[in-house]
Amino acid sequence: MFDNNQQATIFAHIDSLTWLPVFKEEPTFAAILTGMTIAFGFGAIHALAPGHGKALVSAYLVGSKGTAYQAVLLGLATTITHTFSVFILGLIALFASEYILPEQLYPVLNLISGLTICSVGFWLLMRRLSPQDEHHHHSPSSNFSNPSTIALGIAGGLVPCPSALVMLLAAISLNQITYGLFLVCGLSLGLASVLITLGLIAVYAKQWLEKLPLSGVFVQRLPIFSAAMVVCIGIGLTVLSLV
Question: How far is it, in rounded angstroms, from Cα 110 to Cα 105?
Fold first, then answer.
């Protein structure tokens, strides 16, 4: 399935994931549940590291007339896209490694993600600088739309976590493909829990800020600042993908 060099590369990364010896056992139902639980915790902890769309989620939701529903939608869109990207790159490593390596696709995915975030950010910025938006800024739907939420979620999850990909490839190399898929799902659910929690905090923090005295001007300008932040994040990802 993998040549010696590929197996050596995969197993060289396994030491960084201390819970991966569970791969070496024949997966039972209990082992799958245990593995998914551990993967969930690993994904949640890993999501707290730099990256993983936390700044994007915060910038978008804090400056928008978002609700708990949109916070959950954004987190789920990011997580589903992330899981799908891991599976796709895993298939490429499994069946097309002679022609292209997964790591060669990371710059392309970063570029697509950055350009998508820039596009959504500029669209938000133009809407929030529009005089019409000033007249309707009290409407919950005027600053926040589900298509833009899903687009940002997809862009934020388009570049898969290398640890998740290594975990899947390690499972494949040990002939535990189904088990590896379950573990990736567990890791992604852990990532989702952090992003959704952060999104809910951002939504309720915005509602709390609106109730503070002397916060009218700040809250009124917050959507513009958040849209500009989304643009900056997109530009940063785009530049990094081209370096």
Answer: 9
Task: Give the domain extent around 141.
Answer: 27-242
pTM of the model: 0.73
Q: What is the CA radius of gyration of the chain?
A: 20
Residue 239 tokens read as: 């530049």
Residue recorded with tokens 């939420």? 149
What is the number of domains present in the chain? 1
At 102, which amino acid appears?
A: P
Three-state SS string across 70-99, please? HHHHHHHHHHHHHHHHHHHHHHHHHHCCCC
CA distances from 105 to 50, 110, 159 (A): 21, 9, 9
Q: How far apart are CA 25 and CA 6, in angstroms?
A: 22
∠ CA 51-52-54, nearest 5°, is 80
Which ranges of 130-215 does DSSP label H, i.e. alpha helix? 131-135, 146-157, 162-173, 177-211
Would 67 be classed as within a structural domain?
Answer: yes
pLDDT band at 12; cut points 50, 70, 90: very low
Residue 21 maps to a domain: no
